[in-house]
Design brief:
single chain, about 375 residues, alpha/beta, Isopropylmalate Dehydrogenase, ten-stranded mixed sheet, two-stranded antiparallel ribbon, about 40% helix, globular, binds 3-isopropylmalic acid, binds magnesium ion
Protein backbone atom coordinates (compact mmCIF):
# COMPACT_ATOMS: atom_id res chain seq x y z
CA UNK A 1 0.00 0.00 0.00
CA UNK A 2 1.30 3.48 -0.74
CA UNK A 3 2.75 5.38 2.21
CA UNK A 4 0.49 8.37 1.97
CA UNK A 5 -0.24 8.91 5.63
CA UNK A 6 2.30 11.22 7.17
CA UNK A 7 3.09 11.23 10.87
CA UNK A 8 5.52 13.38 12.79
CA UNK A 9 6.58 11.89 16.13
CA UNK A 10 7.88 14.31 18.76
CA UNK A 11 8.88 12.19 21.77
CA UNK A 12 9.98 15.23 23.79
CA UNK A 13 11.32 14.94 27.34
CA UNK A 14 11.21 12.74 30.42
CA UNK A 15 9.12 9.61 29.88
CA UNK A 16 8.04 10.94 26.45
CA UNK A 17 10.59 8.86 24.48
CA UNK A 18 9.81 5.76 26.56
CA UNK A 19 6.06 5.83 25.97
CA UNK A 20 6.42 6.86 22.31
CA UNK A 21 8.63 3.81 21.68
CA UNK A 22 5.54 1.71 22.44
CA UNK A 23 3.48 3.75 19.98
CA UNK A 24 6.14 3.00 17.35
CA UNK A 25 5.76 -0.67 18.17
CA UNK A 26 2.02 -0.43 17.45
CA UNK A 27 2.69 1.50 14.22
CA UNK A 28 5.13 -1.23 13.11
CA UNK A 29 2.54 -3.88 13.92
CA UNK A 30 -0.07 -2.14 11.73
CA UNK A 31 2.48 -1.84 8.97
CA UNK A 32 3.36 -5.54 9.12
CA UNK A 33 -0.04 -7.06 9.84
CA UNK A 34 -2.68 -4.70 8.52
CA UNK A 35 -0.68 -3.10 5.74
CA UNK A 36 -1.60 0.34 7.01
CA UNK A 37 1.59 2.15 6.21
CA UNK A 38 2.63 5.47 7.63
CA UNK A 39 5.44 7.70 6.51
CA UNK A 40 6.97 8.55 9.87
CA UNK A 41 9.40 11.35 10.63
CA UNK A 42 10.78 12.27 14.03
CA UNK A 43 11.69 15.58 15.58
CA UNK A 44 12.59 17.30 18.81
CA UNK A 45 10.42 19.45 21.04
CA UNK A 46 10.79 20.96 24.49
CA UNK A 47 13.94 20.45 26.52
CA UNK A 48 15.35 17.96 24.01
CA UNK A 49 15.18 20.65 21.34
CA UNK A 50 16.61 23.29 23.69
CA UNK A 51 19.63 21.07 24.35
CA UNK A 52 20.20 20.35 20.66
CA UNK A 53 19.21 23.64 19.05
CA UNK A 54 18.79 26.25 21.80
CA UNK A 55 15.07 26.61 21.21
CA UNK A 56 12.05 24.53 22.34
CA UNK A 57 10.87 24.23 18.72
CA UNK A 58 12.87 24.90 15.53
CA UNK A 59 11.38 26.50 12.42
CA UNK A 60 12.04 23.24 10.54
CA UNK A 61 10.06 21.17 13.03
CA UNK A 62 7.26 23.75 13.06
CA UNK A 63 7.09 23.56 9.24
CA UNK A 64 7.13 19.76 9.35
CA UNK A 65 4.24 19.79 11.85
CA UNK A 66 2.23 21.92 9.43
CA UNK A 67 2.88 19.56 6.53
CA UNK A 68 2.02 16.16 8.06
CA UNK A 69 -1.42 14.61 8.58
CA UNK A 70 -0.93 14.17 12.31
CA UNK A 71 1.65 14.98 14.97
CA UNK A 72 2.15 12.46 17.78
CA UNK A 73 3.75 14.00 20.81
CA UNK A 74 5.10 12.48 24.04
CA UNK A 75 5.63 15.06 26.77
CA UNK A 76 7.77 18.09 27.43
CA UNK A 77 9.42 19.84 30.35
CA UNK A 78 11.59 18.91 33.30
CA UNK A 79 13.61 20.33 36.18
CA UNK A 80 16.75 20.74 33.99
CA UNK A 81 15.06 23.62 32.20
CA UNK A 82 13.16 25.18 35.11
CA UNK A 83 15.47 28.17 35.44
CA UNK A 84 15.27 29.29 31.82
CA UNK A 85 13.53 32.56 31.05
CA UNK A 86 9.81 32.06 30.51
CA UNK A 87 9.86 32.43 26.70
CA UNK A 88 12.53 29.74 26.36
CA UNK A 89 10.95 27.07 28.54
CA UNK A 90 10.19 23.61 27.05
CA UNK A 91 6.42 24.15 27.36
CA UNK A 92 6.63 27.07 24.92
CA UNK A 93 7.37 24.53 22.17
CA UNK A 94 4.09 22.73 22.76
CA UNK A 95 2.12 25.95 23.15
CA UNK A 96 3.56 27.24 19.87
CA UNK A 97 2.55 24.05 18.06
CA UNK A 98 -0.99 24.40 19.40
CA UNK A 99 -1.24 28.09 18.53
CA UNK A 100 0.36 28.07 15.07
CA UNK A 101 -1.53 24.96 13.96
CA UNK A 102 -4.69 26.59 15.35
CA UNK A 103 -5.56 23.44 17.34
CA UNK A 104 -8.49 25.01 19.12
CA UNK A 105 -10.43 21.86 20.04
CA UNK A 106 -8.81 19.58 22.59
CA UNK A 107 -10.69 16.31 23.11
CA UNK A 108 -9.92 14.59 26.40
CA UNK A 109 -12.02 11.47 26.91
CA UNK A 110 -12.08 9.97 30.40
CA UNK A 111 -13.12 6.36 30.10
CA UNK A 112 -13.05 3.86 32.94
CA UNK A 113 -11.99 0.43 31.72
CA UNK A 114 -13.91 -2.28 33.59
CA UNK A 115 -10.73 -3.91 34.84
CA UNK A 116 -9.64 -0.61 36.41
CA UNK A 117 -12.92 0.41 38.05
CA UNK A 118 -11.49 -0.36 41.48
CA UNK A 119 -8.13 1.31 40.75
CA UNK A 120 -9.70 4.74 41.07
CA UNK A 121 -9.41 6.54 44.38
CA UNK A 122 -13.19 6.96 44.20
CA UNK A 123 -15.69 4.23 45.05
CA UNK A 124 -16.04 1.62 42.32
CA UNK A 125 -19.77 2.22 41.85
CA UNK A 126 -19.18 5.93 41.32
CA UNK A 127 -16.85 5.36 38.35
CA UNK A 128 -17.72 1.97 36.85
CA UNK A 129 -18.82 2.41 33.24
CA UNK A 130 -17.83 6.08 33.18
CA UNK A 131 -17.34 7.55 29.70
CA UNK A 132 -17.14 11.32 29.53
CA UNK A 133 -15.56 13.65 27.00
CA UNK A 134 -14.01 16.93 28.06
CA UNK A 135 -13.58 19.40 25.24
CA UNK A 136 -11.09 22.04 26.19
CA UNK A 137 -10.62 25.24 24.19
CA UNK A 138 -6.88 25.20 23.48
CA UNK A 139 -5.69 28.30 21.64
CA UNK A 140 -7.31 31.16 23.53
CA UNK A 141 -8.12 32.36 27.00
CA UNK A 142 -5.61 33.17 29.68
CA UNK A 143 -2.91 30.98 28.12
CA UNK A 144 -2.47 33.42 25.25
CA UNK A 145 -4.33 36.63 26.21
CA UNK A 146 -2.60 40.03 26.11
CA UNK A 147 -1.45 41.95 28.04
CA UNK A 148 0.75 39.51 29.87
CA UNK A 149 4.07 39.71 31.66
CA UNK A 150 5.80 40.70 34.87
CA UNK A 151 6.55 44.37 35.42
CA UNK A 152 8.35 46.42 38.04
CA UNK A 153 6.19 48.77 40.05
CA UNK A 154 7.47 52.34 40.53
CA UNK A 155 7.35 52.17 44.31
CA UNK A 156 9.12 48.78 44.40
CA UNK A 157 7.63 45.33 44.11
CA UNK A 158 6.40 43.79 40.87
CA UNK A 159 3.15 42.91 39.14
CA UNK A 160 2.34 39.70 37.22
CA UNK A 161 -0.36 39.98 34.57
CA UNK A 162 -2.36 37.53 32.46
CA UNK A 163 -5.54 38.21 30.57
CA UNK A 164 -8.56 35.96 30.11
CA UNK A 165 -10.11 36.89 26.78
CA UNK A 166 -12.57 35.14 24.45
CA UNK A 167 -14.38 36.26 21.31
CA UNK A 168 -17.70 35.11 19.87
CA UNK A 169 -15.95 33.11 17.14
CA UNK A 170 -13.55 31.38 19.51
CA UNK A 171 -16.39 30.31 21.78
CA UNK A 172 -18.71 29.23 19.01
CA UNK A 173 -16.21 27.14 17.09
CA UNK A 174 -15.31 25.01 20.10
CA UNK A 175 -18.94 24.78 21.21
CA UNK A 176 -19.81 23.56 17.72
CA UNK A 177 -17.32 20.69 18.06
CA UNK A 178 -18.94 19.81 21.40
CA UNK A 179 -22.45 19.79 19.94
CA UNK A 180 -21.37 17.77 16.90
CA UNK A 181 -19.67 15.12 19.03
CA UNK A 182 -22.50 15.04 21.59
CA UNK A 183 -24.86 14.29 18.70
CA UNK A 184 -22.92 11.03 18.18
CA UNK A 185 -23.02 10.19 21.90
CA UNK A 186 -25.84 10.84 24.33
CA UNK A 187 -26.87 14.32 23.11
CA UNK A 188 -25.91 16.12 26.31
CA UNK A 189 -23.51 19.04 26.65
CA UNK A 190 -22.54 20.81 29.85
CA UNK A 191 -20.82 24.16 29.29
CA UNK A 192 -18.52 25.26 32.09
CA UNK A 193 -17.27 28.77 33.01
CA UNK A 194 -17.36 31.27 35.87
CA UNK A 195 -20.10 33.58 34.62
CA UNK A 196 -20.72 34.60 38.21
CA UNK A 197 -17.39 36.45 38.43
CA UNK A 198 -15.94 36.81 34.90
CA UNK A 199 -17.28 38.79 31.94
CA UNK A 200 -15.55 36.35 29.59
CA UNK A 201 -17.63 33.68 31.33
CA UNK A 202 -20.84 35.64 30.80
CA UNK A 203 -20.05 35.91 27.09
CA UNK A 204 -19.11 32.20 26.98
CA UNK A 205 -22.46 31.21 28.44
CA UNK A 206 -24.45 33.51 26.14
CA UNK A 207 -22.69 32.40 22.96
CA UNK A 208 -22.91 28.68 23.73
CA UNK A 209 -26.62 29.09 24.52
CA UNK A 210 -27.23 31.13 21.33
CA UNK A 211 -25.45 28.59 19.11
CA UNK A 212 -27.47 25.83 20.75
CA UNK A 213 -30.78 27.63 20.20
CA UNK A 214 -29.93 28.49 16.58
CA UNK A 215 -28.44 25.22 15.37
CA UNK A 216 -28.69 22.43 17.93
CA UNK A 217 -32.05 22.89 19.69
CA UNK A 218 -32.58 19.13 19.94
CA UNK A 219 -29.51 18.59 22.10
CA UNK A 220 -29.67 19.04 25.87
CA UNK A 221 -27.51 21.93 27.06
CA UNK A 222 -26.75 22.80 30.68
CA UNK A 223 -24.39 25.37 32.20
CA UNK A 224 -22.28 24.98 35.28
CA UNK A 225 -19.76 27.07 37.19
CA UNK A 226 -16.27 25.61 37.03
CA UNK A 227 -15.88 25.25 40.80
CA UNK A 228 -19.16 23.36 41.00
CA UNK A 229 -18.09 21.19 38.06
CA UNK A 230 -14.86 20.28 39.88
CA UNK A 231 -16.97 19.18 42.84
CA UNK A 232 -19.60 17.35 40.74
CA UNK A 233 -16.88 15.41 38.90
CA UNK A 234 -15.90 13.63 42.09
CA UNK A 235 -19.40 13.54 43.58
CA UNK A 236 -21.31 12.05 40.66
CA UNK A 237 -19.20 11.97 37.47
CA UNK A 238 -21.71 9.91 35.50
CA UNK A 239 -24.10 12.88 35.34
CA UNK A 240 -21.83 14.24 32.57
CA UNK A 241 -21.45 13.26 28.95
CA UNK A 242 -19.72 16.05 27.00
CA UNK A 243 -18.21 18.95 28.93
CA UNK A 244 -17.05 22.02 26.98
CA UNK A 245 -14.91 24.58 28.71
CA UNK A 246 -12.12 27.10 28.33
CA UNK A 247 -8.38 26.55 28.21
CA UNK A 248 -7.50 26.93 31.90
CA UNK A 249 -10.58 25.28 33.40
CA UNK A 250 -10.17 22.46 30.86
CA UNK A 251 -6.56 21.95 31.93
CA UNK A 252 -7.59 21.51 35.54
CA UNK A 253 -10.82 19.57 35.07
CA UNK A 254 -9.13 17.06 32.75
CA UNK A 255 -6.40 16.32 35.28
CA UNK A 256 -9.14 15.81 37.84
CA UNK A 257 -11.11 13.56 35.47
CA UNK A 258 -8.04 11.43 34.86
CA UNK A 259 -8.06 10.24 38.44
CA UNK A 260 -11.58 8.92 37.97
CA UNK A 261 -10.05 6.47 35.50
CA UNK A 262 -7.39 5.28 37.92
CA UNK A 263 -4.35 7.18 36.69
CA UNK A 264 -3.16 10.16 34.72
CA UNK A 265 -1.31 7.49 32.74
CA UNK A 266 -4.59 6.40 31.11
CA UNK A 267 -5.83 9.64 29.52
CA UNK A 268 -5.29 10.28 25.79
CA UNK A 269 -6.04 13.48 23.92
CA UNK A 270 -6.59 14.86 20.45
CA UNK A 271 -6.10 18.51 19.50
CA UNK A 272 -7.83 19.48 16.29
CA UNK A 273 -7.74 22.56 14.07
CA UNK A 274 -10.42 23.96 11.77
CA UNK A 275 -11.47 21.98 8.71
CA UNK A 276 -9.76 23.16 5.54
CA UNK A 277 -11.46 23.22 2.12
CA UNK A 278 -10.77 19.51 1.64
CA UNK A 279 -12.26 18.63 5.03
CA UNK A 280 -8.85 17.92 6.57
CA UNK A 281 -7.95 19.15 10.06
CA UNK A 282 -4.47 19.72 11.40
CA UNK A 283 -4.06 17.55 14.45
CA UNK A 284 -1.80 16.71 17.34
CA UNK A 285 -2.24 13.72 19.63
CA UNK A 286 -0.67 13.49 23.06
CA UNK A 287 -1.20 11.84 26.42
CA UNK A 288 -2.64 14.18 29.06
CA UNK A 289 0.16 13.26 31.46
CA UNK A 290 3.42 15.20 31.58
CA UNK A 291 7.10 14.24 31.36
CA UNK A 292 7.17 12.65 34.88
CA UNK A 293 10.85 13.35 35.65
CA UNK A 294 10.60 11.34 38.89
CA UNK A 295 10.21 8.05 37.00
CA UNK A 296 12.13 8.88 33.81
CA UNK A 297 14.54 6.22 32.56
CA UNK A 298 13.23 3.52 34.88
CA UNK A 299 11.16 1.75 32.24
CA UNK A 300 8.04 1.84 34.42
CA UNK A 301 5.94 4.56 32.76
CA UNK A 302 2.45 3.68 31.58
CA UNK A 303 2.36 3.76 27.75
CA UNK A 304 -1.43 3.32 27.53
CA UNK A 305 -2.30 7.04 27.32
CA UNK A 306 0.01 7.54 24.35
CA UNK A 307 -1.09 4.32 22.67
CA UNK A 308 -4.72 5.39 23.14
CA UNK A 309 -3.81 8.83 21.75
CA UNK A 310 -2.52 7.09 18.63
CA UNK A 311 -5.86 5.26 18.42
CA UNK A 312 -7.53 8.68 18.48
CA UNK A 313 -5.27 9.71 15.57
CA UNK A 314 -6.46 6.71 13.56
CA UNK A 315 -10.06 7.70 14.26
CA UNK A 316 -9.95 11.46 13.81
CA UNK A 317 -7.17 11.98 11.23
CA UNK A 318 -7.37 8.83 9.13
CA UNK A 319 -10.90 7.45 9.52
CA UNK A 320 -9.39 4.08 10.44
CA UNK A 321 -12.05 3.38 13.05
CA UNK A 322 -11.61 -0.37 12.85
CA UNK A 323 -7.90 -0.18 13.61
CA UNK A 324 -8.57 2.33 16.40
CA UNK A 325 -11.07 -0.09 17.93
CA UNK A 326 -8.54 -2.90 17.60
CA UNK A 327 -6.02 -0.95 19.68
CA UNK A 328 -8.63 0.07 22.26
CA UNK A 329 -9.80 -3.53 22.50
CA UNK A 330 -6.21 -4.70 22.98
CA UNK A 331 -5.84 -2.25 25.87
CA UNK A 332 -8.99 -3.72 27.43
CA UNK A 333 -7.56 -7.22 26.96
CA UNK A 334 -4.22 -6.55 28.64
CA UNK A 335 -5.94 -4.89 31.58
CA UNK A 336 -8.43 -7.75 31.88
CA UNK A 337 -5.48 -10.17 31.82
CA UNK A 338 -4.18 -8.43 34.93
CA UNK A 339 -1.16 -6.60 33.50
CA UNK A 340 -0.42 -3.32 35.28
CA UNK A 341 2.26 -0.68 35.13
CA UNK A 342 3.27 0.76 38.50
CA UNK A 343 0.80 3.67 38.42
CA UNK A 344 -2.23 1.36 38.16
CA UNK A 345 -0.82 -1.57 40.15
CA UNK A 346 -3.34 -3.39 42.32
CA UNK A 347 -3.01 -6.32 44.72
CA UNK A 348 -2.89 -9.67 42.94
CA UNK A 349 -2.07 -8.18 39.53
CA UNK A 350 1.10 -8.57 37.50
CA UNK A 351 3.38 -5.58 37.49
CA UNK A 352 5.00 -5.01 34.09
CA UNK A 353 7.45 -2.57 32.52
CA UNK A 354 6.66 0.00 29.84
CA UNK A 355 8.06 -2.25 27.11
CA UNK A 356 6.31 -5.37 28.41
CA UNK A 357 3.02 -3.49 28.35
CA UNK A 358 3.68 -2.45 24.72
CA UNK A 359 4.53 -6.04 23.77
CA UNK A 360 1.38 -7.29 25.46
CA UNK A 361 -0.67 -4.81 23.45
CA UNK A 362 0.64 -5.97 20.09
CA UNK A 363 0.20 -9.58 21.22
CA UNK A 364 -3.42 -8.81 22.11
CA UNK A 365 -3.82 -7.15 18.70
CA UNK A 366 -2.53 -10.39 17.17
CA UNK A 367 -5.14 -12.27 19.17
CA UNK A 368 -7.97 -9.99 18.10
CA UNK A 369 -6.93 -9.76 14.48
CA UNK A 370 -6.94 -13.57 14.33
C1 LIG B 1 -1.63 19.91 29.39
C2 LIG B 1 -0.39 20.42 30.05
C3 LIG B 1 0.08 21.68 29.34
C4 LIG B 1 -1.00 22.74 29.53
C5 LIG B 1 1.46 22.20 29.76
C6 LIG B 1 2.54 21.15 29.62
C7 LIG B 1 1.84 23.44 28.99
O1 LIG B 1 -0.63 20.62 31.42
O2 LIG B 1 -1.59 19.66 28.17
O3 LIG B 1 -2.64 19.73 30.06
O4 LIG B 1 -1.03 23.45 30.54
O5 LIG B 1 -1.83 22.87 28.62
MG1 LIG C 1 -2.52 19.91 32.08
Amino acid sequence: MAANKKLLILPGDGIGPEVMAEVSRVIDWLDAKRRVTFEVSEGLVGGASIDAHGTPLTEETMAEAHSVDAVLMGACGGPEWDDLPFEQKPERGLLRLRKEMDLFANLRPAVVFDALADASSLKTEVVRGLDILIIRELTGGIYFGEPRGIEDLPGGGRRGINTQVYTTDEIRRVARVAFELAGKRSNRVCSVEKANVMESGVLWRQEVQALHDEEYPDLELSHMYADNCAMQLVREPKQFDVIVTDNLFGDMLSDEASMLTGSLGMLPSASLGPEDSSGRRKALYEPVHGSAPDITGKGIANPLASVLSFAMALRYSFELDEDAALIEGAVEDVLAAGLRTADIMQPGKERVSTAAMGEAITAAMDGRAG
